[in-house]
């Protein structure tokens, strides 16, 4: 079951910069849980703002990022990772010291470097975060108030981060239904390279390979559940994923090297006809996956 927040939290004015899937979902979750009184947003794409307003995801939108953050007690950066520096530079001249800032970017080391580049040092009220929840959909139309329910959010505060800001962001995510874990930013990027970034790369590569085959229509027509399960995330937003691979390339390349080594090993076993050894690898892998299934099942049971 998701942690119940121990504290109450209330923001009069929440500014969302980047009103897409994650920004819109957080806006909804904060409004419905009573944490946010008034949610105001800015996005480069005005259609997202108009849709957000007409569908009740936000209460107001502004013409610029700077106007949006005026008087905001909470500012959420929900733009693609590579846009964080641009947005911060826009709001820096009007930023008030009372405002708490956070982000939702899928890579943390790069975001913190961008924050440091803009401000000279990471402001004590900036708490970097990453919800481990999402989907292959994007845009405010995909917003879901329950997106973070029973999901983890990793926050990566620094030694210099204001503990009150950390506590506020922790409580904010708990109020949105998530449970919060704290992690060192570099460790976060390594873990996510393995558990999220590599699988996305493999899904994109598989679909690219199959669709280049002579009769790709036939391949997709007869696709079994395995291909469907494995490749769903290849429908994810290409811009967002380009940014993630650009900003976390070292950690991704490290696990990709290990994966390529494993593939080469399996290829050699097939070429050499060493199917006993191939079967041993599969058995080892199945055991690990079965254990993972048990962990997932336990987690599902705890949700109810
Ligand atoms: N989609 C997921 O599954 C997921 C999960 C966890 C974290 N994230 C992170 O959340 C962030 C947002 O992802 P999303 O899925 O909501 O994407 P999205 O495409 O749905 O929304 C991003 C929005 O940011 C806007 N934008 C881009 N540059 C901007 C700028 N300079 N100023 C203002 N607005 C700008 C875009 O117009 C878009 O509407 C990313 O950093 C991503 O890494 C995504």
Nutshell version of this structure?
This protein is of the alpha/beta class and 304 residues long. The chain contains twelve helices and nine strands. 53% of the residues lie in helices and 12% in strands.
Describe, in plain words, how this protein is organized in 3D.
There is one protein chain. Strands 3-2-1-4-5-6 form a six-stranded parallel sheet. 53% of the residues lie in helices and 12% in strands. It has helices at residues 21-32, 46-54, 65-69, 84-91, 109-119, 163-175, 185-211, 216-221, 225-231, 238-247, 249-271, 275-303; strands at 11-17, 36-42, 60-61, 74-77, 100-103, 126-127, 129-131, 152-155, 179-182. It folds into two domains: 11-183, NAD(P)-binding Rossmann-like Domain (Rossmann fold, 3-Layer(aba) Sandwich); 188-273, 6-phosphogluconate dehydrogenase C-terminal like domain (6-phosphogluconate dehydrogenase C-terminal fold), CATH 1.10.3660.10. It is an alpha/beta fold and 304 residues long. The mean pLDDT is 94. The chain has twelve helices and nine strands. Nicotinamide-adenine-dinucleotide is lined by residues 17-23, 42-45, 48, 78-81, 83, 86-87, 104-106, 130-131, 134-135, 138-139, 237, 240. Nicotinamide-adenine-dinucleotide (NAD) is lined by residues 17-23, 42-45, 48, 78-81, 83, 86-87, 104-106, 130-131, 134-135, 138-139, 237, 240.
């Amino acid at each position: 079951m998701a942690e119940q927040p121990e504290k109450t939290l209330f923001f009069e004015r929440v500014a969302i910069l980047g009103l897409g899937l994650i920004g819109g979902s957080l806006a909804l979750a904060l409004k419905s849980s009573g944490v946010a009184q008034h949610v105001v947003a800015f996005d480069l794409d005005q259609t997202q703002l108009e849709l957000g307003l007409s569908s009740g995801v936000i209460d107001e939108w502004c013409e610029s990022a700077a106007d949006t953050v005026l008087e905001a007690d909470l500012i959420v950066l929900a733009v693609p990772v590579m846009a964080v520096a641009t947005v911060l530079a826009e709001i820096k001249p009007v930023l008030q010291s009372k405002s708490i800032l956070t982000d939702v970017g899928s890579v943390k080391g790069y975001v913190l470097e961008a924050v440091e580049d803009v401000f000279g040092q990471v402001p004590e009220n900036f708490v970097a975060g990453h919800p481990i929840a999402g989907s292959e959909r994007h845009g405010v139309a995909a917003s879901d108030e329950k997106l973070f329910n029973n999901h983890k959010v990793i926050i990566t505060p620094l030694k210099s981060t204001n503990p009150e800001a950390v506590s506020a962001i922790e409580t904010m995510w708990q109020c949105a239904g998530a449970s919060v874990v704290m992690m060192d930013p570099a460790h976060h990027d390594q873990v996510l390279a393995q558990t999220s970034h590599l699988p996305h790369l493999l899904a994109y590569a598989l679909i690219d390979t199959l669709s280049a085959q002579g009769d790709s229509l036939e391949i997709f027509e007869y696709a079994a559940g395995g291909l469907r399960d494995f490749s769903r995330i290849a429908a994810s937003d290409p811009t967002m994923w380009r940014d993630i691979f650009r900003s976390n390339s070292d950690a991704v390349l490290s696990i990709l090297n290990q994966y390529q080594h494993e593939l080469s090993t399996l290829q050699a076993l097939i070429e050499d006809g060493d199917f006993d050894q191939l079967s041993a690898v599969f058995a080892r892998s199945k055991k690990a996956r079965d254990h993972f299934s048990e962990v997932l099942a336990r987690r599902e049971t705890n949700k109810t």
